[in-house]
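Q: I'm building a small set of examples for a reading group on sequence design. Run inverse folding on the following structure and report the sequence directly after it, with nothing in between.
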């Protein structure tokens, strides 16, 4: 659709029916440093991570890059975004890259032994092990990330009904629920997959929390109530559910034993990371900051074409945000589409 560049009736207040998706994409990048390799920070609690299929193609050892290295060291390579990963240290230039050297921090250890990798690093996702976007998939299906294994799943492969609710913040896939089976007890009491309302379930848990302040195990108290739910399918969790987990010594050991001790850290969440991105480095909402940098004609181009070009535009913005060229080339890309 052509844009009437003399149209002055559309303002920023009218734009982007799906603006939250664009805002989220910008926040993922805004929460990481685009200029300095994060390697010197060690295993970063959470950061945007990328993979380079030019340097580490399918069949090679998986490796991940920080935002700065994706921008500086791998310019012109086939880069794809992995969203965010926890406790990850940049691999750029280590032994996995052969003779390729990081331009920002040339001297690095041969391996980052604490990094966790999955098939995402070679461009496939979900239990179906398919790429995204998948040109062979005729189903328009959303993908959701598990907060434990950090893999992405098609909603149709989660094994549960996906409930649309603003209260639902995090998802744990079926395999990870069974890896940490004590979570099923909490799920029976506090998740929205139950028939009882989330608010009531939260009140029940709050009461349980108060009773457990003396040092009693909250998990055992819940188990004694005998409330069960089917142990199958992914589970969606409401806001602040992590604060309801028991923190007695025995339960803390259980979290460590199955590698989910990060569940006790509410700053580990993607939401917390994105909230940091909203203030660093933009100092304001990143979407509004981005749009405010455009003149009115550019704003109109963005407004009229966003819905039609949503998938392409998100990929485009993420690509050129890495290269520091978002503002200058956004209008050029949209014009080409027309």
């Amino acid at each position: 659709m052509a844009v009437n560049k003399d149209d002055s009736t559309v303002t920023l207040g009218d734009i982007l029916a799906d603006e939250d998706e664009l805002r989220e994409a910008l926040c993922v990048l805004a929460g990481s440093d685009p200029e300095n390799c994060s390697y010197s920070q060690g295993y970063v609690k959470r950061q945007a991570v990328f993979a380079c299929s030019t340097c580490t193609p399918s069949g090679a050892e998986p490796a991940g890059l920080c935002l700065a290295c994706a921008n500086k060291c791998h310019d012109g390579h086939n880069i794809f975004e992995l969203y965010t990963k926890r406790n990850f240290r940049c691999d750029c230039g280590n032994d996995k890259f052969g003779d390729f050297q990081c331009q920002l921090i040339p001297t690095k250890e041969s391996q980052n032994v604490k990094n966790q990798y999955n098939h995402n690093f070679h461009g496939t996702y979900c239990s179906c092990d398919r790429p995204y976007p998948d040109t062979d998939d005729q189903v328009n299906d959303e993908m959701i990330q598990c907060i434990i294994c950090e893999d992405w799943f098609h909603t149709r492969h989660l094994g549960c009904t996906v409930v649309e609710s603003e209260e639902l913040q995090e998802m744990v896939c079926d395999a990870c629920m069974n890896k940490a089976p004590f979570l099923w007890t909490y799920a029976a009491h506090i998740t929205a997959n139950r028939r009882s309302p989330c608010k009531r379930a939260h009140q029940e848990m709050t009461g349980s929390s108060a009773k457990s302040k003396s040092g009693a195990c909250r998990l055992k108290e819940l188990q004694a109530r005998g409330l069960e739910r089917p142990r199958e399918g992914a589970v969606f969790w409401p806001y602040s559910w992590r604060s309801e987990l028991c923190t007695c010594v025995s339960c803390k050991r259980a979290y460590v034993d199955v590698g989910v001790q990060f569940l006790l850290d509410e700053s580990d969440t993607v939401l917390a990371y994105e909230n940091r991105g909203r203030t660093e480095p933009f100092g304001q909402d990143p979407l509004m900051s981005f749009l405010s940098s455009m003149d009115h004609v550019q704003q109109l181009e963005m407004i009229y074409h966003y819905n039609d070009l949503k998938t392409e535009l998100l990929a485009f913005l993420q690509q050129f945000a890495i290269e520091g060229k978002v503002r200058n080339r956004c209008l050029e890309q949209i014009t080409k589409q027309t």
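Strands lie at 44-52, 79-88, 143-145, 152-154, 168-172, 235-238.
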